[in-house]
Specification:
By secondary structure, the chain is mostly beta strands. 0% of the residues lie in helices and 44% in strands. The chain has no helices and nine strands. The strands form two sheets. Strands 5-6-7-9-8 form a five-stranded mixed barrel. Strand 6 and strand 7 form a beta hairpin. The model has no long low-confidence stretch (mean pLDDT 87).
Length: 148
């Protein structure tokens, strides 16, 4: 999706995707963490710092809020008007260690009926779009219980 927003490292068993992490930045002066990453300045208005370090964000968090998208957004949203619209689920996830909320889509097959505020979820790789030459990767949130 956007270079530098996440990292995928090879798992211990030789498969990819075992450690998929969103990447943020931490200010060296105030310890604030930002996502999406920031490379120029600290976004904390009370901080004059600027020493930013890339940090992997927590892999798991708790559902802070969620909703579904049941209609095709208007332009400039890019979609094939001839294709049937597929509803999707949006999840706002609180990362306690970073003291922040990160928004993302739920993994395919996860609906609002599968979610509850406070439920533990984990970040997993997903496909934003693909064609014959390229697969654009994004992130999804998946309930931890679904992986047991």
């Amino acid at each position: 999706m956007v270079a530098g927003w996440f990292t995928v490292t090879e798992g211990t068993d030789g498969t990819e995707g075992q450690d998929f992490r969103l990447l943020g930045t931490r200010c060296g002066a105030c310890a604030s963490v930002f996502f999406p990453r920031e490379d120029s300045f600290c976004r904390n208005p009370a901080c004059a710092g600027g020493d930013l370090t890339q940090v992997p964000l927590s892999k798991r968090g708790r559902v802070w809020s969620y909703t579904d998208g049941r209609y095709r957004p208007p332009a400039p949203y890019a979609s094939d008007p001839g294709a049937p619209w597929e509803p999707y689920t949006l999840v706002a996830v609180e990362l306690a260690a970073e003291r922040m909320v990160v928004l993302g889509q739920a993994a395919p097959g996860v609906s609002t009926a599968d979610l509850a505020v406070g439920m533990e979820v984990e970040v997993v790789p997903g496909v934003l779009n693909e064609d014959a030459e390229t697969t654009w990767t994004t992130w999804h949130w998946r309930p931890v219980e679904a992986t047991a």
